Amino acid sequence: MTGHRDMILSPDIVGRADGRAAPVIDAPPPRDVRRAADLSRLLVSLALLGLAVLVAVVTREFARRAQQGLLTAANALPPGLRDGLVGTVQAVALAAPVAAVVVLVVRRRIDVLLRILPAAALGAATTWALTRLALARGRPELWPAVLAGRGGLVRAGWPSAVYLAACAAAVVAAGPWLARPWRRALWSLTAACAVVSAVAAALVPLETVAALAAGGAAGSAVLLAAGGPPDRPPGRAVADALVACGIPLAALHELPAQEQLPGEGILYRAETTAAARLAVRAVAAEDQGRDLFRRLARRTLLRRPDDPGVQTPLGAVEHELLMLVFAARTGARVDEPVIAYPVDAEGALLVTVGQDARRLSALPAEDLTDPLLGEVWQSVARLQEHRLGHHALRTEHVLVAPDGTPRLTAFARARLDAPPAVLGSDIAELLATTAVRVGPRRATACALAGLGPERLAGALPYLQPLALIGPARREVARCDQERAKAAGQDVRRRVRHPGGRPSLMHDLATEVRTVCAVPSVPPARLARFTWKSVLGLLGAFLVLHLVLPQFAHAPAALHALRDANWWWLLAVVPVTFVSQAFSTCLQLGTIPDRLPFGPTYQVQFASSFLNRITPSNVGGMALNLRYLQKTGIETGAATASVGLQSLAGAVSNTLAAAVFLAWAGGHRGGVHLDAPVGRYALPVVALVLAAGGLIGLTPPGRRFLHEKVWPFLGSAGSTVKGIATDPVKIAVGTVGALGLPLVQVVGLALSVHALGGGLPFVQVGAAYMAARLLANAAPVPGGLGALEAGLIAGLTALGVPAGPATSAVLVYRLLTFWLNIPLGAFALGVVQRKGYV
């Protein structure tokens, strides 16, 4: 293999193309595509924009001082130099957009204009809203004085951040149609104008950064919604490259869309003048970009992802050609390689000997015979013997010839001397994807016939979802969901038990242990993050930032306990257990299926522990969702149940607050809560309309609605309908929702009475509900700190002395909040060991 021309050509393929007729090219017109690069730019831009807004809002005074220092330094420049810089930027800002629009109109590039104009409008609107809502808070107060009496062509302060964001969005949106030098030149010009404006104190530095980030996000969002020109080599370029490398091409046909594999290039079928058939795969940088996202995800989630590094398209096809040669020498049936060759500026193509083969994943069920699958596994056994890891071994990468002979393909991620984890994951992936089609028992029997018991049993630790590549994992998840949906039709009136959800990987592991006569083995440790590591990090954050400050009140609480009535304090202890019983009733009342009380009660205790270390009850909701899924309930129904729990809790808290505050308001002053709703209403409505337009007016958005949203809403609607037609469920859910706040009020009232505070129950309830409503807005777990402050303020306002009020609140939180942490942690360990979550 040499340089850019790596080939293995047989005499019946190669020949002289000189003097022959031009090849027939059958390829559809280029279609707009959506690039992974646009998605990555959108994510980076949104992260940078969020950071700028966070700095402006959270560190307001620091942002003002820092930016005022920069403006002061800029103001020290000579006035003539400052005005000259501002005038230069203004001239460029006026001339460049006009020139660009004129060029596009003259060249009739309407498609580019249809991307640029919406992107500029979106970037300008986003920056305008953020400037007035958040960024203005970090603006130096002396900035208007710096601009006074200054200017270039027009007054200083123009181009504004809004105009700069529009220009940046236009540059991003036009990027796919521009050559690389032009893209770099326009980006450099935009960035230079932004920097010069900030240096000359015409723009606030933080708003400049936010404008560039908003423009990048807007341009990327428009390209993702509307698409851009393809960057893969067209059919003509592929044909020219085949002729240039010595293949006497007669015809080139692009395969239909349903036979293409996303992220793996464009597949062609070629015919030579000698009637030889070839398979051609053309790849470009975009295909490598898609692979980059997969590699990043695996590197984040897995301890040892063992993926190949970033490669150029030519390097990738050269690597695949080498792996095909080695795989063929192991005795496995694989594609016969022909040549790897560059095409266009950044693309490459891989040519193999082609036949009228079909993918194993597309074969009808009656054609998936045991001998066919056994031959596939025999080829896999040859690869395993020589430690050649495929890294994407699933049914869509197995081709079946018309005579029924299978062969393996797609060796782009393969590697030599693969470790046991890669070899085991290969077996697990092919076993899982074949089991989707033929069932766990037949799939395991065929794998045993081709691999043997020893090698098949060695894959047991890798029969887990993390061992599968993304497409295979999604295929298995869809299979499990369909099985759960089918099983749910038969068990609607029976009690669902935890761990009853169908699991293809679990069934495969059971079959492998049975046919290989081996004991159960623990799963391999593939995940970089586990429940324990995540909870450890959250616990450390809790101790450092939330728990330690609470110890300042410990002496006061201990002193108060000396004079407390211990019988009343002991009566507070059951509040923790009773509140979990009401939470269990709420869970049981928001799902049409019947769940056992005991396991559900344990899961609620574990959820309460997660709610103590995660804000807004996120951890508890995730655990409840996982519990419902493990019982065999569909994801849509489970999500609807968790949402109904949150909604019922919010309604019950609001209702209880209204009753207590109204009842107590006849004797004490009312409570007034003020929220600046109007300030945020217009931006929220605008964002909702923009998101709705992107989803409803674009093909990807409509596909997302059709494939994801409507089925999810249908499942959620059936859940709500099942609950609404069952009076028992309504009664149980209502008791749980109303009992949760009432039992907490009872606990607080007992604590106040134990510390000598004589306050009527209604007023204690009013104080608790008012403090709870305020603490819910605090982004801290369980309202820690905010709830205590609100309760103390409410009790003292109602006449309880400050000492007893503080002691009562601290003791109440000790028995209902902190006591729940060790109990909930123990419950979490129990439900994990029992397989409930």
Total helical elements: 31
The main β sheet shows up as: 7 strands, mixed
Q: Averaging pLDDT over every residue, what do you get?
A: 78
The number of distinct structural domains comes to 4
Query: Structural class, judged by helices and strands?
Result: mainly alpha
Shape: flat
Radius of gyration, CA atoms, in whole angstroms: 33 Å
Polypeptide structure, described:
This protein has 837 residues and is mostly helical. The protein has four domains: 6-25 and 231-353, Phosphorylase Kinase, domain 1, CATH 3.30.200.20; 36-226, no CATH class; 365-516; 554-675 and 726-833, no CATH class. It contains 31 helices and ten strands. The strands form two sheets. It has a seven-stranded mixed β-sheet, sandwiched between helices. The longest helix has 31 residues, at 635-665. 41% of the residues are buried.
In short:
By secondary structure, the protein is mostly helical. It is built from 31 helices and 10 strands.
Keywords:
837 residues; mainly alpha; Phosphorylase Kinase, domain 1; 4 domains; 7-stranded mixed beta sheet; 3-stranded antiparallel beta sheet; 31 helices; 6% strand; flat; disordered N terminus
